[in-house]
Amino acid sequence: FRALRWASRLTLLTGVGLTGWLAYSIYTLGHPVEQVEPDPDKKTLVILVPLPGTGWGAISLLKKLDTENYNVVVISPRNFFLFTPLLPSCTTGLIEHRSVMEPIRNIIRQKKGVVKYYEAEATKVDFENRLVHISDDSEIKGEVSNTVVPFDMLVVGVGAENATFGIPGVKEHSCFLKEVGDAQQIRKRIMDCVETALFKDQTEDEVKRLLHMVVVGGGPTGVEFAGELQDFFEEDLKKWIPEIKDNFHVTLVEALPNVLPMFSKQLIDYTESTFKEEKITVRTKTMVKKVTDNSIEAEVTKPDGSKEIETIPYGLLVWATGNAVRSVVRDLMNQIPAQKSSRRGLAVNEYLVVNGTENIWAVGDCAITNYAPTAQVANQEGAFLARLFNTMAKTDDIERELKKLSAAQAVAKNEEERNKVFDEIKERQKQLRRTKQIGPFQYSHQGSLAYIGKERAVADISWVSGNFASGGTMTYLFWRSAYLSMCFSTRNRCLVAFDWIKTKIFGRDVSRE
Ligand code: FAD
Ligand code: NAI
Q: Residue 301 Cα, ligand 2 centroid: separation in angstroms?
């Protein structure tokens, strides 16, 4: 009974604690703090965040930066942060896209020091003159839609664009999966293909083509999308539109011998066998060479090593073959001689300083480090830069104080006063040494996770004693709780959880908006 009493007390306390925390989080979201105006004497830090809203690297930096120490200007054509790991779920309506978006205005209003935001694309970084050229590319334009922003320090966190490798027809005919708009377009096209296939007098071949959903790229983006799409078909489309059940088909095309190359062999095999069970066709050793408006042409490597060109008709084509360098980054690289040999992005040193510069840093997918271009890396890089900049600001303050103390020591009236100032100088110098002891960036890999459909996920988790690989339904529950806890805000967490519950009860919406 005593144990029971303690257990009930503990449950009650946890409940009260959680409710209090939730209430506080919701209160702070709706009640932004009083902000400190920027000090004209402070340095101007420009955070270049090109992407729908603001990306992983830049937002992580902004979140932890003491903004009262710098005049921070955020520039991005996207006025929200996007939680990309749940983007594949938005393509089928499992999660509504607004649930994984956090407005940049909410983020900057929670900062202590005022942060400026311009909804614009950075078109050019003038390295020599320390200027960023910006352009308003939105539908509504004012009298001024092109201007420059000067900077003392610059952080480039513009991410990457979709790699197409110059393959003809990809840009014109494919859907990509990087932005919210991409997910919306895919959702619309899936339903358009389904309804068009059911148009009166449609031929059998055309029905088959329209209901063939082809995903190119067997990396995590392609795999997660294929899994989500097959779930949509099994759980909702088949129920509401049974006429399509014999012809709806998902194919994943990959140039390498297997999908998910960054995962362990055991998980690759598990993913491929789960896809087989789900009836998703995996075409490995199949490299797409050309895309037309209704088919792809691919070079298939046969088991005997011979190659043959195959034409695969499709209704929906989703292209997920990784990252390419954005033009603004390429232009900046061309201005810096030390970047000549870099191909995949801005080469940086261990403090994320762009090689060949002193006042430009790069984070996330546009920076070339020893790590994969993931949200996990970008997030840690952003947090590292915040720590670095906070330390630099503190160092500046201490150095200013030291100068004042030295002047005071020189004009001290007597020995006692001089000794007092001397002690203070010693204390500040100690503080300065401690502050300056910030080490280089070190990435701590927490593991890789991917959803593979049918309420299963795969995980390669870094453990104290090495790597731990797991796949299945328990991993899926872990995947869900991990991503729910990683959502940007309490608001996002609640919206995503509601969406999951809503879909479980009512199913996904099969209308085409
Ligand atoms: P991004 O997050 O891409 O942000 C770039 C920002 O720059 C955007 O705000 C953009 O609007 C802005 N921008 C672009 N051009 C300009 C310009 N010219 N001027 C100004 N601003 C500009 N990683 C994981 O670790 N785990 C996952 O589960 C995972 N899932 C993913 C799922 C999908 C569908 C995708 C596409 C990616 C996923 N990733 C995942 C990878 C992860 O999203 C990226 O590595 C991460 O977003 C990189 O962060 P970033 O800050 O460099 O760039
Ligand atoms: P990716 O680079 O990981 O994979 C792209 C795949 O496309 C490669 O396997 C490549 O062989 C294949 N490919 C390239 N050209 C091809 C062609 N012409 N024909 C057929 N196949 C072709 O790209 P992805 O999945 O877009 O991921 C980008 C980054 O984002 C990666 O670093 C990834 O780790 C990260 N990410 C992580 C996720 C997770 O951890 N769950 C989810 C999504 C992305």
A: 20
